[in-house]
From TrEMBL:
Domain VOC: 5-110, 152-267
Record-given protein name: VOC domain-containing protein
Entry superkingdom: Bacteria
SUPFAM superfamilies xrefs: Glyoxalase/Bleomycin resistance protein/Dihydroxybiphenyl dioxygenase
UniProt xrefs under Gene3D superfamilies: 2,3-Dihydroxybiphenyl 1,2-Dioxygenase, domain 1 (3.10.180.10)
């Protein structure tokens, strides 16, 4: 009885067009049906992101997870402070639950996606006494590279008013595992078998909300190239290129049209069997990055819990710049 993987997330947004443009620029493929946009990785059939238009402001609607033994999970949800709810109108069936803070989750009894296959030359680093790349240049002319290609949705980070309670719910009710945390400020949870270091992460905030989605690409070079190219098109918030301490992944974040973030990542720690993993409580100085540029002032701001939408905040920042 456990969550086996992340499928997608759904946002309610005021206008589909900025979201379709942003995520298409990031390398996703859009399928638009009326007031809903389904965005998928190029080599996948299932969408990773669903945008539903016409909302007053951006809001996380739900996260979809694949899981098994849903009947037993329904009992565990109620026992751990959540509740089972009816399927929302227009959405597919499954086990729909609210966590103790009201965040909506859809649980579907299906297998997780197969891991993507790497493309091109393997990323190789020549180091002192360890030459692994022979007779070829590591970097080709810029024109040789195609745009960044997201391979899969790796993880999401959401806001929570009580991070440790959120962790307790997904571990005790949904069968996930605590990978690592930094005090009660941020925590990372994984599945129990064959998992990226984190699948769902939680950051402390006055209310529930969506912080970022992270998409795997082939290697650190593609993280850097993809982030720079998306920033050039989006022309708003940027954090990267850098490397996290917790999870070890290389990252580049670009801010979406509503103040949340899109991350390219590569080289994430892997937890093959959670039984052999020991979580660490990191200091706050290690909670965000090992190295990288300065963190944007609003990187951990929850615009869904703010009285002023992101667009108004962005206008104020522009006016005072």
């Amino acid at each position: 009885m456990a969550v086996r993987g992340l499928l997608s997330f759904t946002l309610e947004v005021p206008d589909l067009d900025p979201g379709i443009r942003f995520y298409s620029d990031a390398g996703l493929v859009a399928d638009i049906r009326g007031d809903t946009a389904y965005l998928r990785c190029p080599d996948q059939v299932r969408p990773s992101i669903v945008l539903v238009g016409g909302a007053p402001r951006k809001r996380l609607h739900h996260i979809s997870l694949c899981a098994d033994e849903l009947d037993g999970m329904a009992v565990a949800v109620a026992r751990n402070g959540g509740k089972v709810v009816a399927s929302p109108e227009r959405f597919e069936d499954g086990l729909w639950v609210e966590d103790p803070h009201g965040m909506l989750l859809q649980l579907v009894d299906e297998a997780p996606d197969a891991p993507p296959s790497a493309t091109g030359e393997a990323f190789a680093i020549n180091a002192p006494g360890r030459i692994v790349r022979h007779g070829r240049s590591a970097i080709l002319p810029k024109a040789s590279y195609a745009p960044a290609k997201p391979l899969r949705l790796g993880h999401v980070l959401v806001f929570s008013p009580d991070v440790l309670r959120s962790v307790a719910f997904v571990t005790d009710a949904l069968g996930m595992g605590l990978a690592d945390r930094s005090e009660d400020i941020i925590a990372f949870t994984c599945t129990k078998q064959g998992s990226d270091h984190h699948v769902i992460a939680f950051a402390k905030s006055p209310g529930v909300g969506f912080h970022h989605a992270s998409f795997q690409v082939n290697d650190p070079d593609e993280v850097g190239r993809g982030g720079a190219a998306l920033l050039e098109k989006a022309k708003r918030g940027d954090w990267g290129f850098g490397r996290h301490t917790i999870g070890s992944n290389f990252f580049h974040y670009i801010q979406d049209p509503w103040g949340s973030w899109f991350e390219y990542y590569s080289d994430m720690d892997h937890i093959a069997d959670y039984a052999g993993w020991t979580p660490t409580n990191y200091s706050l100085e290690d909670s965000l990055a090992s190295w990288g540029p300065g963190v944007p002032d609003d990187f951990v701001h929850n615009y869904e819990a703010d009285e002023a939408p992101f667009q108004q905040a962005a206008m104020r920042q522009t006016a005072t710049a």
